[in-house]
Amino acid sequence: MLHRAPPGLKLGSALVIVIAIVLMPRRPDALYLLPAALLLGLWPLARMPLGFAVRRMLVAEFFILGMALLTLLAPEALPVFLAALIKSNLSIFAMLLLIWTTPFQSILQQLRRLGLPAVMVTTLALMYRYLPVLAEESSRMQRARASRTFAPGRRLAWHSLTTIIGQLFVRAADRAERIYLAMCARGWK
Amino acid sequence: MHLPDGFLDTKTALFSAGVAAAGVGFAVREVRATLEPRRMPLLGLAAAFVFAAQMLNFPVVGGTSGHLTGGVLTAVLLGPAAAVVVLTCVLVVQCLVFADGGLMALGANVFNMAILSVFGGYFAFWAAARLVRGNSVRATVFAAAFAGWVGTVLASISVAGQLALSGTVPWGLAFPAMANVHMLIGIGEGLATGLITLAVLRIRPDLVAGAQAQAAAAGWSWVPYGLLVSVGLAVFVAPFASPWPDGLESVAAKLGFEEQAGRSAFAAPFAEYEVPGVGSATLATALAGLVGTVLAFGAAYLLARLLVPSLGTPHKDAPSRN
């Protein structure tokens, strides 16, 4: 259902929902049931699997807790702390619904229609396309290194990791040259 | 350091988004004007590279590990304007594909990590690189390591300011907590930035030299970015950073308001939301920042000295080569 909705509408609604959540009072409040109910109602329409939601929420929880612990430093901060937890979890859930139902390509098209500069659009598109390629390349280099190094110490680990990252950049730059030639061969201008 | 949604209020988020949009706009205009078309795809590949590099975990103390942020590294490898575009794209994808960093907080995250960290760090790089004469590889590695530290600390101070401006965490607590932790985290970032720069310099020195030459030849102006960064910092940090309001208050108290308030003035050191000693914690953190900067500077120099003659330049007896 939600998959078919226009990406601009989904992006806009996600922003509106997040803003509404952020505007809510800085303490646990019954008002939070409203966006929660709305998001829960949208969930079946998005057909987002439970496993995906739980996995992504758990990853995000790490960052949220890190920030939220800061709020706990102040005296009598428990309401602020709880409100921050509620707000950020609801917002993340709204973002997950958006992400699950909207391919990045169509968000990108929408952003281009909204006037995102061409440099940004090209960079985002290329980044999204080559992210798995470079991640693969990086893990291949790590595997090769691991097969040659037996139980590296911390010093050696830093040396090999920084070398791998440096090498990864050089290969990315070489690949960018080839991509440019391929793009030109296909009439890019 | 990615801020999720729910920690910033609307005014802070909107203001950060405005400053961030202006900064990215400047950077895009400069990239469009100066970058040769041949290097255009490099931006996208560099963004993918930063993302892939952030996934690698460096062992730190005990069982903990950390990862690279990569803003200053990208500025060293590609030049600052290109780095702003690259880091912004990384943050956009992290937000819209991985739900890492909030949608409404995107502007704040872009300001902290793609603008302040990149430009502040690049300024430190630019200034520090001029202090070392002779061996350009050593100068670059030293400056990159120092700048990596500076960029991390700057971004963390801005995060503290945004949290305080939003009323989420009082400045007197956010600033010491964020700055002190990131002065330590920054060591890792600086070390990794320096070592990776050295690795790239060994394999393809022309890449780094090309980027730096281009940044210099572009008639690169600090003015618009310097202005933007100052505006952001002025709004996020300046209202809190000045010690004067507290000082004035205490002077006022001594000069007579104390009489009016009677004995209760002594009984109410907790009156403001702050805990006792927090004012001095802010001051102590600022001092620690100064000392930390000097230490980071020295450590980066030692690192470069240690690494470059022994491992770096293949022709260390022919300095005229550079």
Please name the CATH topology of chain B: Arp2/3 complex 21 kDa subunit ARPC3
Low-confidence blocks of residues of chain B: 244-252, 256-275, 311-322
What's the helical proportion of residues of chain B? over 70%
What's the helix-strand series of chain A?
A: HHHHHHH
Count of helical regions of chain A: 7
Give a description of the structure.
The complex is a heterodimer of chains A (189) and B (322). With 189 residues, chain A is mainly α. Chain A folds into two domains: 103 residues, no CATH class; 69 residues, no CATH class. Helices cover 79% and strands 0% of the residues of chain A. Chain A has seven helices and no strands. Chain A starts with 6 loop residues before the first helix and ends with a helix. Chain B has 13 helices and two strands. Chain B has one domain: Arp2/3 complex 21 kDa subunit ARPC3 (Orthogonal Bundle), CATH 1.10.1760. Chain B is 75% helix and 1% strand. Chain B has a two-stranded antiparallel sheet with strand order 1-2. By secondary structure, chain B is mostly helical. Classes of the chains: A mainly alpha (189), B mainly alpha (322). Chains A and B meet through α1, α3, α4, α6 and α7 of A and α1, α2, β1, α4 and α7 of B.
Q: What topology does this entry show?
A:
The complex is a heterodimer of chains A (189) and B (322).
Chain A: H1 7-23, H2 33-46, H3 50-71, H4 78-101, H5 104-113, H6 118-148, H7 154-185
Helix pairs in contact in A: 1-4, 2-4, 3-4, 5-6, 6-7
Chain B: H1 10-34, H2 40-54, E1 58-59, E2 65-66, H3 71-78, H4 80-98, H5 106-129, H6 136-165, H7 171-203, H8 205-217, H9 223-236, H10 238-241, H11 244-261, H12 264-267, H13 278-312
Antiparallel strand pairs in B: 1-2
In short:
Helices cover 79% and strands 0% of the residues of chain A. Chain A has 189 residues and is mainly alpha-helical. Chain A has two domains: 7-109, no CATH class; 117-185, no CATH class.
